[in-house]
Design goal:
2 copies of one chain form a homodimer. Chain A contains 12 helices and 14 strands. By secondary structure, chain A is α/β, with parallel strands linked by helices. Chain A folds into 2 domains: 197 residues, Isopropylmalate Dehydrogenase; 152 residues, 3-Layer(aba) Sandwich (Isopropylmalate Dehydrogenase). In chain A, a hairpin with a 2-residue loop joins strand 6 and strand 7. Chain A starts with a strand and ends with a helix. Chains A and B meet through strand 6, strand 7, helix 7, helix 8 and helix 9 of A and strand 6, strand 7, helix 7, helix 8 and helix 9 of B. Strand 7 of chain A pairs antiparallel with strand 7 of chain B, so a sheet runs across the interface. The complex binds 3-isopropylmalic acid (2 copies). One 3-isopropylmalic acid (IPM) sits at the interface of chains A and B. One 3-isopropylmalic acid sits at the interface of chains A and B.
């Protein structure tokens, strides 16, 4: 069997602690299942800045490009709040997304039954919630040029960002959304602001045409992004797959994640296009939560989102579908048993730390 | 007493019905309080397109510019979904905002106690909620150039929108936020995406400097806009005044509005700068809800948001503070009595139509 190359970028804050629990699962899979994972590790974010003066070094970028999959923890923290814009911790993540061409960000917003009560929404609105948000990740206002601050003189400056989308970028992300929908409830809702943005007009057209040309079996709906935000709060279960641009995806997926009551538990996958020859796609897996500097290093962080991200890695990068299912089931079982980290603690549950949570999941796996 | 000139733009959908109830209040104030309102009326949105081929005619724009205040209903509907971009219904509203230079959009997100149960959030999270969102309304990606779709050939198009903010634009909207905060809980939270947008970096700097220079008595906090969306869902009562740009304001104010359970009830004010000589500011008042074409013409629309928008008009355009308070109290009293339109119906309440709701509020006024 050929080796399965994983590149680990634990990053800052609680990233390293969460990654530690994934490392245990990898070791177990190598030993018990002969999974053949080979891991290497690098620095990203604030810790990379401290070591190299950049949010990720060229050497680590090369390793990320060469790996079958990248596992990413989290970046940032108050320590680096005033480093120059170009080398801020987030720059490492943005460069990975751009250079690996990870245009498709999959963000499941699911509500673990054991956690429905933790949502700020009424439980009946979120019980059984299972939305997949597909966010375009390499275009839009995140990367468009010009992106600059100009000095106009007289104490006036001008901040400029540019939202740009080309037909092919919209087509390929729409394709991912329709393909995913076919494996689920077969419904896609596309969100933009076509009433004020020209990129939204084009987005709407291209999604509509892609649907007509290749995916007319899937149910397609269009919604303005502001109305979409409202509907997520009002009646989230109306959605199956949501497809939207980079910035709207950032906002909407965070709102959706918060709805579930499972924020500390949600994974994400960022995928590139399948290689023409090998069919392999570059990929990065990361928890939706951030670096949580306030609780970093205390051994209390919830490693579930990181572990669930590894489950997505098993599924999408290595086609280890059964293993992915098993790992996700292990997480659900541990929750059902009332084992909880502090962030998801509930009456009558048993509170554990990061390592104990990882052990419990491994025991169920 | 000089006349108080109001220009009414009922627009499409339920706009005209809702405006009808405000007209009754205006007539009453003229008669019983000698308020001296003089009203004129025009067309905006789809109905203006049908009449003139434009989303608002030049003649009506002149009237809007000359009036002391504009009362705006709602625009749009499926009938006009495929009219050309330049004359779509929303273009009328956007032109009014831009040409009247209504840079400050005030969107209160309050939870009427009688309606807390109607929120999708747990009642304890929204009871007593009172947030004021201050959205920049004449800049950002809504108006920046280039804004276009380019044909690249080979079946490829490129959609472009430009986010632009100058120092003075951020300064003046921050000023409004700090001034407003002083009349409330004295706290401002500024939201942007400085970690990915240069306009966000500038926004953050200018808000910070404005605070230091003139408003250091107000408590200031900065939050990333995606985290802000999360926090609105998680713990909305943590906020007093939120200040943010045009696009984030569009998204965040809709989410906030939905949280309250009072969406059909929320007003907004869009204000210009005070005139150097007269101190008067141009202003437009409009409900947060849209044109609701599905229920238009049936006499069942909730007129409260339109009436509450008129209360904001009394307060901000005419300094009729007591009258504004009384009108808002009349709305609350009617709700407390269990009188409801269909959209806010609850067990044991009495369901009424648009006209009856307007009459009930007038009777309490
Ligand atoms: C860290 C930041 C640059 C990033 C983004 O804005 O994309 C984050 O919010 C996310 O959603 O992954
Ligand atoms: C109608 C539309 C152009 C408008 C906007 O996007 O500003 C609306 O959503 C609003 O929030 O007032």
């Amino acid at each position: 069997m050929t080796a399965r190359n994983l590149f680990l970028l634990p990053g800052d804050g609680i990233g390293p602690e969460a990654m530690g629990e994934v490392r245990k699962i990898i070791a177990y899979m190598n030993e018990a299942m002969n999974a053949g994972f080979v891991t290497d590790e690098g620095l990203v974010g604030g810790c990379a800045y401290d070591a190299h003066g950049a949010a990720i070094s060229e050497a680590d970028m090369q390793k990320a490009l060469a790996a079958d999959a990248v596992l990413f923890g989290a970046v940032g923290g108050p320590k680096w709040d005033s480093v120059p814009y170009e080398v801020r911790p987030e720059a490492g993540l943005l460069r990975l997304r751009k250079d690996l061409q990870l245009f498709a960000n999959l963000r499941p917003a699911i509500c673990y039954p054991a956690l429905a009560a933790a949502s700020s929404l009424k439980p009946e609105l979120v019980e059984g919630l299972d939305i997949l948000i597909i966010r375009e990740l390499t275009g839009g206002v995140y990367f468009g040029e010009p992106k600059e601050i100009i000095d106009l003189g007289n104490g006036q400056k001008r901040g400029i960002d540019t939202q740009v989308y080309d037909t092919y970028e919209i087509e390929r992300i729409a394709g991912v959304a329709f393909e995913m929908a076919r494996t689920r409830q077969n419904r896609v809702c596309s969100m933009e602001k076509r009433n004020v943005m020209k990129s939204g007009v084009l987005w709407n057209q291209v999604v509509t045409e892609t649907h007509k040309a290749k995916y007319s079996d899937v149910q397609l709906e269009h919604m303005l992004a502001d109305a979409g935000g409202m509907q997520l709060v009002r009646q989230p279960k109306q959605f199956d797959v949501i497809v939207t641009d980079n910035l709207f995806g950032d906002m909407l997926s965070d709102v959706a994640a918060m709805l579930t009551g499972s924020l500390g538990m949600l994974p994400s996958a960022s995928l590139g296009a399948p290689d023409g020859k090998t069919g392999k796609r570059k990929a990065l897996y990361e928890p939706v939560h951030g670096s949580a500097p306030d609780i970093a290093g205390k051994g209390i962080a919830n490693p579930i989102a990181m572990i669930a991200s590894f489950a997505m890695c098993l599924r999408y990068s290595f086609n280890l579908v059964k293993e992915a299912d098993d790992l996700e089931k292990a997480i659900a079982n541990v929750l059902d048993k009332g084992i909880r980290t502090g962030d998801i603690m509930a009456d009558g549950a048993r509170q554990v730390g990061t390592v104990e949570m990882g052990d419990a999941i491994l025991a169920e796996f």
